[in-house]
Amino acid sequence: MIGNKADAALAANFIVTFDEDTWDEIVEGMPEGWKFLGSGCSREAFLSPDGVVYKREPHTAGMVSTNNANEYAFYKSNSETIAGFRLAACYLWENNVLAMEYAKDDGSNVDRVWETMRDTMRERFNYHDCAKFKRGDNWHGVAGNIILTDYSY
Predict the structure, then answer these.
(1) Which of 63, 69, 10 has its CA nearest to residue 41?
(2) Could you count the other beta carbons within 10 Å of the beta carbon of residue 21?
(3) How far apart are alpha carbons 129 and 108 in whole angstroms?
(4) pLDDT of residue 61
């Protein structure tokens, strides 16, 4: 299990607004020690003080987070290990808040693994968003391995 119920509930209630003058996203209700990581097309991500990422979906009723939790469970139980590549561990909490391990890209050379990761995700999960330019957003090189942190189709 990743994260905790109290932090997932906190993240579910943060208010994110967009300032049209500065083009900044502003988060209300976020306690000290938390960090706003940003918004994607369907989710907002927050880093808790204990190093867990909480992703929540303000507009899609938890569909992407539910998919991630199911895909992680499938990958963990039904797939052979692929050297140098794995999905980030996650757990789906109430309010459709997905807690996920935090992976910070360290600049590792993972070119030898990237193509395998891309092909595996396309074949097994019909996931096509693991392009090279998504490094640091959807996938991260950590200690010579790839950790995929956004793997919903």
Answers:
(1) 63
(2) 5
(3) 20
(4) 60
Structure confidence by residue, pLDDT tens digits, 88-121: 999 999 888 999 999 999 999 998 898 888 888 8
5-148: CATH, from 3.30.200.20, 3.40.190.10, 1.10.760.10, 3.20.20.70? 3.30.200.20
Lookup: tokens for 77: 């139980």
Give me 148's structure tokens: 């995929």
pLDDT-based confidence at 59, cuts 50/70/90?
low
Decide: 103 and 143 in contact? Cβ < 8 Å. no
* Whole-angstrom distance, CA of residue 37 vs CA of residue 25: 10
3-class secondary structure per residue, the chain? CCCCHHHHHHHHCCEEEEECCCCEEEEECCCCCCEEEEECCCCEEEECCCCEEEEECCCCCCHHHHHHHHHHHHHHHHCCCECCEEECCEEEEHHHEEEEECCCCCCCCCHHHHHHHHHHHHHHHCCCCCCHHHECCCEEEECCEEEECCCCC
